[in-house]
Design brief:
- There is one protein chain.
- The longest helix has 29 residues.
- The chain is of the alpha+beta class and 677 residues long.
- Helices cover 48% and strands 8% of the residues.
- It has a four-stranded mixed β-sheet with strand order 12-14-15-13. A three-stranded antiparallel β-sheet has the order 1-2-3, with no helix packed on it.
């Protein structure tokens, strides 16, 4: 039977549960609680409690609300252990059943907004029924708790207050409590259907919530967490911790499990999955309540096979492991027979185990099984550095240089400076590949050829063993010969002229000696020597590196780019004199009159150098005046030309006059110069 709509119509709010709205209608129109209103309207209490279709259809007709709105906000029990609400499946564990929480500030706001409605204004928000919700999202206070043993009265807040002798206007404000990330996720998901977090959204609400809570408890309190003693606020707090990880998806969860595995096994490398993951592993492996958490179980299983040396045939969380994913030192020792301490050192040197870890429980570290097995196989087919010379056919020094500069590499890295003796593991296959690449481009010859020399002679005084071999491998050094076709490095003959050309090309423009630098800058040699020292906040002029001068005689050189850099930053007095055509002493006096001072103390340096910005205006002015004088001279010459005898050949440039200007450096060099005896 379809009931007649009650008037006046009581407004329905999207944030309230339909059963609570039905109880409000009873107070507003009949002044009775939810149980009595069920009898008045003929609604079976079981339909009211279970939120059946009969109930939602009846309420929609009774209150003149769209059936879609009432149906969406009806908490419906679909099965003995399953509920549905707002399009989401909810396990019984996610909904409060024997007590109800509420926000006193929200209820005060309800009463103040509808002062004449009495208990009919008291709205039961659907978020208050959810166990992860412990704080009011609007007022930021903790929700208060009230017992609700009767499933019908659980939707009737005024009835519960009356049973507990609680007066709404006397309820004190709750303590401050900010809603957490997990609570916001749950409310948001029930509000709009999804929250944009793929891995969590793929699961039912309770599965997502429980995964966050259990992982958060493990992170916060370790494998021995006393979860049976947790309050709802405790679960909410650890749930927020777990949510920050789970929201990023399975890869972040795996990383968290990996970190927890290492920390749990720090005192004993033999700790297994149960010791590392404690209550979480026990719950997943043995508890009946863990059914339905397949996605979380799959991630935990993956974490176990990635972080523990689990062999084929072992059963982990109900599934058999088909192949090994990782090795520990102990498991690889059992397969190879290598000394465990030696194997541990090898794994650290190759980077399969972090080099920064301590030795307290080294078996806690695992590494990819395939990489570990391949590494051991390659090591067992290797030789130390002192035997490489016999395989490559070179000297001991050549082998050491090739190893030091990475032309040939050891499987296990060699510590810096450690060459010779029995250092390193050089794989036979790698050495054969190297030989093939070296000898491939060499042409066999039956006798020595003029202009072609062996590696030692080719490198002496001009290059290095490594540089020549790299030129050869890169194809820059062509025409290399192989004496008698014997594939040994000491039988290779290199084109000496081509090596010299490559060396010259590599060196580029040669750096200048300090005497040449002095002439270039127009200052004395003593001034240059002072500029390259560290005195007076120097060096002002940097010497060329040893790499740039390794093949040059003498020790003090300055590169051409460095000279250009200095000239861009500083202008010597001689340069100002040359640019203006004025004697350097006159330039010095004119600059002093303008208050322009050198960058460095002339008394210390023995020369004057200025910043270009300080002297640029002076140079420009004098160059302009010099140009005007030149133009006037040309005009006078052109006026006088007709008066000369056309038969005479007059060349003013040959008059013997010189336009050269004596500069500071010229005076200094003249002072130092003497006639040879």
């Amino acid at each position: 039977m379809t009931p007649r709509a009650l008037t006046p119509r009581l407004e329905f709010h999207d944030d309230e549960v339909a059963q609570g709205y039905f109880a409000r209608v009873g107070y507003f129109h009949a002044g009775v609680n939810a149980g009595k209103f069920c009898r008045y309207t003929g609604i079976d209490r079981r339909d009211f409690r279970a939120g059946s279709t009969t109930f939602s259809t009846f309420v929609a007709a009774l209150t003149a609300n769209p059936i879609k709105c009432i149906d969406l906000n009806t908490l419906r029990q679909d099965a003995p252990d399953s509920l549905s609400f707002r399009g989401q499946t909810l396990a019984l564990d996610v909904v409060r059943r024997t007590f109800v929480r509420y926000c006193p500030l929200c209820l005060h706001a309800d009463a103040e907004s509808k002062p004449g409605m009495g208990d009919g204004a008291t709205r039961l928000r659907w978020s208050w029924l959810l166990r992860p919700v412990v704080a009011c999202p609007f007022h930021g206070v903790a929700l208060e708790e009230i017992p609700a043993p009767d499933p019908v009265n659980a939707f009737d807040l005024p009835r519960l207050f009356a049973q507990q002798d609680i007066l709404l206007n006397r309820i004190s404000p709750s303590r401050e409590l900010i809603p957490g990330a997990l609570q916001n996720y749950v409310i948001g998901r029930l509000s709009i259907g999804t929250a944009g977090l793929t891995w969590l959204d793929e699961q039912d609400v309770w599965q997502a919530v429980k995964a966050c809570e259990m992982l958060g408890a493990l992170i916060e309190h370790g494998p021995d967490a006393k979860i049976s003693e947790y309050s709802e606020e405790d679960w909410a707090r650890v749930g927020d911790i777990g949510f920050e990880v789970c929201a990023k998806g399975p890869s972040a969860i795996l990383d968290a499990f990996g970190t927890l595995r290492v920390s749990a096994g720090r005192s004993s490398g033999r700790a297994g999955p149960q010791a590392a993951f404690g209550f979480l592993f026990i719950w997943m492996n043995y508890s009946k309540n863990a059914k339905g958490f397949d996605q979380f179980r799959d991630v935990l299983r993956e974490a176990i096979v990635q972080n523990f040396a689990i062999g084929p045939g072992e059963v982990i969380l109900g599934q058999e492991v088909l192949h090994r994913r990782v090795h520990s030192v102990n498991s690889l020792v059992n397969e190879t027979g290598i000394n465990r301490f030696r194997l541990y050192r090898l794994m650290r040197k190759t980077g399969l185990i972090p080099a920064t870890t301590d030795d307290a429980a080294f078996n806690q570290w695992v590494f990819p099984a395939e990489k570990g097995e391949q590494l051991i196989a390659r090591i067992q087919n290797s030789i130390p550095l002192n035997k490489v010379q016999h395989v490559l056919g070179c000297s001991k020094t050549h082998a050491e240089q090739m190893s030091l500069h990475g032309v040939i590499t050891s499987i296990v890295p060699i510590s810096e400076g450690q060459v010779g003796l029995t250092q390193g593991y050089f794989n036979h296959d790698d050495l054969e590949d190297f030989k093939a690449s070296v000898f491939r481009a060499a042409e066999p010859c039956s006798a020595e050829v003029e202009g072609f020399v062996n590696l030692t002679v080719a490198a002496k005084g001009r290059s290095s063993t490594v540089e020549i071999l790299r030129w050869h491998l890169d194809g820059q050094l062509t025409g290399t010969r192989l004496l008698n076709g014997v594939q040994r490095i000491d039988h290779m003959r290199f084109d000496l002229m081509m090596i010299r050309d490559l060396v010259d090309r590599r060196r580029g423009p040669a750096p200048l000696r300090l005497t040449a630098v002095a002439l270039t800058l127009g200052i004395s040699l003593d001034a240059v020597k002072k500029l390259v020292t560290a005195k007076h906040d120097g060096p002002w002029l940097k010497l060329a590196s040893k790499k740039e001068t390794v093949f040059l005689s003498g020790g003090a050189y300055v590169s051409r780019p460095e000279i250009a850099r200095f000239q861009a930053r500083y202008t010597p007095l001689a340069s100002v004199s040359r640019q203006t055509g004025i004697h350097f002493r006159a330039v010095q006096r004119l600059l002093e009159q303008r208050g322009i001072q050198p960058v460095l103390d002339p008394a210390w340096l023995g020369a004057r150098i200025y910043r270009p910005t300080d002297v640029s205006e002076f140079i420009t002015e004098n160059q302009r005046m010099q140009k005007c004088g030149s133009d006037q001279k040309q005009y006078a010459d052109s006026r006088a030309a007709p008066l000369t005898d056309k038969r005479e050949s007059v060349n003013i440039g040959d008059s013997g006059e010189s336009d050269d200007v004596i500069c500071e450096s010229d005076a200094l060099h003249c002072t130092d110069w003497k006639f040879p005896s």
